[in-house]
Design brief:
By secondary structure, the chain is mainly beta. The chain is built from one helix and eight strands, in the order αββββββββ.
């Protein structure tokens, strides 16, 4: 009896891993039409382009702030400049912004979940 319970508990834990995935994880369509993949990397989430002219570049790293909000860094793949960034999730839309000069100049984008 104990053996069956142990096997059942182990299977439940292994199968529930995907259920605990953060909502930011997955594939996203950028405003430029490229596909970005966001996945867990340590205690953060790494953003990597998987299609388009900058495919293969890691363009960001975010940590969760709770309540579907994230903060970290965003890199412009065209010039490799890194900015302080924020992201928030609203349904199937990821709102990203990156700022320079202490927040005086900011740029934002909306990505759609694939």
């Amino acid at each position: 009896m104990f053996r069956r319970l142990s096997v059942a508990a182990t299977c439940a834990v292994l199968m529930s891993g995907a259920a605990f995935a953060d909502p930011i994880e997955g594939r996203w369509k950028t405003e430029a039409g490229s596909t970005a993949h966001i996945s867990a990397c340590g205690n953060a989430f790494c953003i990597k382009l998987v299609s388009g002219s900058h495919s293969g570049k890691q363009i960001g790293k975010m940590t969760s702030g709770g309540g579907n909000s994230y903060s970290g860094t965003i890199t412009d793949p065209a010039n490799d400049k890194t900015y302080k960034g924020k992201a928030s999730l609203a349904g199937g839309t990821l709102n990203l912004s990156g700022c320079v000069l202490g927040g005086l100049i900011c740029r934002s984008q909306k990505w759609d979940k694939l």
